[in-house]
Write a structure and sequence with these properties.
With 124 residues, the protein is α+β, with helices and mostly antiparallel strands. The protein has helices at residues 9-20, 25-43, 53-58, 60-69, 116-123, and strands spanning 2-7, 49-50, 82-85, 91-100, 105-115. The protein contains 5 helices and 5 strands; from the N terminus they run βααβααβββα. The protein has a 5-stranded mixed β-sheet with strand order 1-5-4-3-2. It is globular, with a radius of gyration of 14 Å.
Length: 124
């Protein structure tokens, strides 16, 4: 099975912001950790902490609104979700795995790079 990695939605915006501000220590740290975690997740797509399906169901409307905002209506029925800490104190990365059986491809879609306060809003 082929694996394709994409940074989408808010994660893409945050990633671009980090690239622009990489002269700052925190931006460099986040970029380095993001790259490291991408490699870990390519080897083991369930590397991150599982976000429980009941949490996804409970926050479905909020998540659907998020995906509509970024023109990703196909992710509205999110059925798996994982997160990884980018720093010990403040930043988390959230991703999902989507399989396309037609072309035997697994997509790893990073869709949020957020602080813990924003993470808690969507995933508690």
């Amino acid at each position: 099975m082929k694996t394709v990695v994409k940074v989408i939605c808010q994660a893409e915006e945050k990633y671009q912001e980090l690239l622009v501000t990489q002269q700052h220590k925190e931006s460099r740290l986040l970029l380095k950790k993001f790259s490291f975690l991408q490699e870990c997740i390519k080897r083991d797509f369930a590397y991150g902490e599982v976000i429980k399906k009941e949490v996804l169901r409970k926050n479905k409307d909020l998540l659907n609104s998020f995906f509509r905002q970024y023109q990703y209506p196909d992710l509205i029925e999110l059925d798996n979700c994982f997160c990884c800490d980018l720093t010990r104190t403040n930043w988390r990365m959230v991703y999902t795995i989507v399989r396309d059986a037609a072309d035997d491809t697994r997509y790893i879609l990073y869709f949020m790079i957020v602080d813990h306060q924003t993470y808690e809003k969507y995933f508690t």
